[in-house]
Amino acid sequence: MTPLLLFPAALGAVVTLALPLAIHLSRRSELRRIDFAALRWLSARPRPRTRLRFDERLLLAVRLLLLALIALWLARPAVEGATDETPWVAVVPGASNAVVPPGAHGVWLAPGFPSLDRPAPGGPIAVSSLLRQLDAELPRGVRLTVVVPPEITADAERLHLSRAVVWRIVGGFMSSRRPTAAPPNGLIIRYAGGREDAARYVRLAAAAWQAPGHAPDIDIAPASQPLPQTNWPLVWLVPESVPAALLDRVQHGDTILLDVAATTDIAMDTAWADAVGKPLVMSAALGRGRILRLQRRLGSRAMPELLEPDFAARLASLLAQPSPAPTRVAARNVAPTADGPAYTPPAQDLRPWLALLIAAVFFVERLLASGRRVRVTA
Amino acid sequence: MSGIGAHASRNRGAGLEFAQYRAYEPGDEVRQVDWKLYARSERLFVREAERESPLTLWIVVDASASMAQGDAARPGWSRLEASKLLAVGLAELALAGADRFGWIVPGERGIVAAPADGRRQRDRLRLDFAAVVATGTFAVTDLGLLYERIGTHDLVVVLSDLFDDAVVAMMLRLAAARRDVSAIQILTAEERDFAFAGGHHFVDPETGSEVVGDGPAMRAEFVRDFEAARKALSARLAAGGVRLATHFLDEAADAPLRALFGSTLR
């Protein structure tokens, strides 16, 4: 436990100690002129004392203390290596049977590391990140036990910590958002003359996304009709060059599926291939949205996949936003290793406590300075 | 020795002392008719009382520069202010006894007000004294004026700090000339206690002479000497037939009046 100053140059502020000294000194040295008619009976023999003296010494002492404390506060005092050897037990929310041995410090593995006495925190928990933070903040030599359910959410990086961690896997379940791709809420279909059949295939597939009894939100119309202001995916069955207005929609986050004969100069990758690997749909990211293009005419002869039972789901997953990467992992597979870098634990800042002390001393100073006092000088 | 409130035999007041009978005239109050005399003489006579105030009070206020001195504990409350208050108190006492009173403020712009009675006289006193400022030294340029104005057996009350020997000499001469002289010495609390801390320049406001000294070191000697001087003055005045009361600025102002003239305010 080493006390230290993070900004020792601020100790120069102690020169301000001269200020209260001067204030309390100056009152003494001056001689007041006083009208005194009974001068006849006054003998001038005793000279005024000129020795260095201070008025109101208690107030002076409090003021000096106050200034010294402020100078110390500016110098940012801290203590380093204030090691508390109490072992820590971090429990991932959701782990059952979390038993904390007596004398250990039990916390939830959640932002802020709340105590286990509090209810389990909700919300998404980044286990790996929190573990790295806890490992970096705990002083070296503190034993850490992590209680985890069988499955946790983790990031792609393996856990390399600075200490050997007791990795205790218990029962329980860690709730998290499952990576699911919901089908779009609705669909806009615009078709040119001669593409009515293709539009019907798409409409029927989209109708299959909807729950039974729920009217499908499908806006199907010839290409001349204006587009509604929604963020539904658009199926553009027009064998012509793609209008700039459509590309602008894609730039702003829309998804658009183009006709096989639509022309665009955007390079695309295969998004769906048939059984022999020939592309059925190609796609590319454009701005915040995506652009897809059919590679065959929509018809049972050119594209027999239309008749497969999973065509509706395929179309939904193509038009839906890409699903997040899976993050759930078996806890036994991500047990941390002790080969990570060690950090110097941060010095504990003493300024908040010092600020409290300064406030208390200031209060006392105000009490002494503004309270009633005997005016000694006439 | 007579004084305000203790001279009932000399001040009879209206309707108390019979003066004369005169014939009834229309307009006289019926209750003033002497009915016993009417029963004897069958004529209507009216009892008439002559009202006179044989007592005259002179208030002499010292307005020299030393009277401007006050206590630091009560700024603005000088000896002169206390004198004005005491003068008004004396005027009220005279008013209560229906006595005539006048005032003299010696000095370069001195004031001499002829004695009279009534509330207007009191109001004139307040008006006159509002303009008085303490400056200069005590100077009775024309002592003969005092003898001329202040009649024998007149009551004279001097309000002063009595530091100036001219004041004391004047009072003794007035007393020797059979005037009834009283003095109220007005002193500050600092002159009594000398509660000065630290070094000070003490300046005499009249002579301008200075004494530099440390308050606590000077205290004992000053208090002793000042007490002795007051005792000596008191003895000197008593020997000369002058009554003395002392008023300190931090004390009640009616105490010296009670000490001099008793507590019964008619």
Structure description:
The complex is a heterodimer of chains A (378) and B (266). Chain A is 24% helix and 20% strand. Chain A is of the alpha/beta class. Chain A folds into 3 domains: 2-31 and 52-80 and 349-370, no CATH class; 88-178 and 328-341, no CATH class; 187-319, no CATH class. In chain A, strands 10-9-11-12-15-14-13 form a 7-stranded mixed β-sheet, with helices on both faces. In chain A, helix 5 (244-251) links the parallel strand 11 and strand 12 (255-258). Chain B is α/β, with parallel strands linked by helices. Chain B has 2 domains: 1-52, no CATH class; 56-261, Rossmann fold, CATH 3.40.50. Chain B is 35% helix and 22% strand. Chain B contains 8 helices and 10 strands. In chain B, the strands form 3 sheets. A 6-stranded mixed β-sheet of chain B has the order 5-4-3-6-7-10, sandwiched between helices. In chain B, strands 1-2 form a two-stranded antiparallel sheet. Chain B has a two-stranded antiparallel ribbon with strand order 8-9. In chain B, helix 5 links the parallel strand 6 (155-160) and strand 7 (180-187). In chain B, helix 2 runs antiparallel to helix 3 (119-130). The longest helix of chain B is centred in the last third of the chain and has 25 residues, at 215-239. Chain B is elongated and about 85 Å long. Chains A and B meet through strand 2 of A and strand 8, strand 9 and helix 7 of B. Strand 2 (32-35) of chain A pairs parallel with strand 8 (199-203) of chain B.
Topology:
The complex is a heterodimer of chains A (378) and B (266).
Chain A: E1 2-5, H1 18-29, E2 32-35, H2 57-74, E3 77-80, E4 88-91, E5 105-108, H3 127-137, E6 144-148, E7 151-153, E8 165-169, E9 187-191, H4 196-209, E10 218-222, E11 234-237, H5 244-251, E12 255-258, E13 269-273, E14 279-286, E15 289-294, H6 311-319, E16 328-330, E17 348-349, H7 351-370
Parallel strand pairs in A: 4-5, 4-6, 6-8, 9-10, 9-11, 11-12, 12-15
Antiparallel strand pairs in A: 1-3, 3-17, 7-16, 13-14, 14-15
Helix pairs in contact in A: 2-7, 4-6
Chain B: E1 18-23, H1 35-41, E2 45-49, E3 56-61, H2 79-96, E4 100-105, E5 111-116, H3 119-130, H4 143-149, E6 155-160, H5 165-176, E7 180-187, H6 189-193, E8 199-203, E9 210-214, H7 215-239, E10 243-248, H8 254-261
Parallel strand pairs in B: 3-4, 3-6, 6-7, 7-10
Antiparallel strand pairs in B: 1-2, 4-5, 8-9
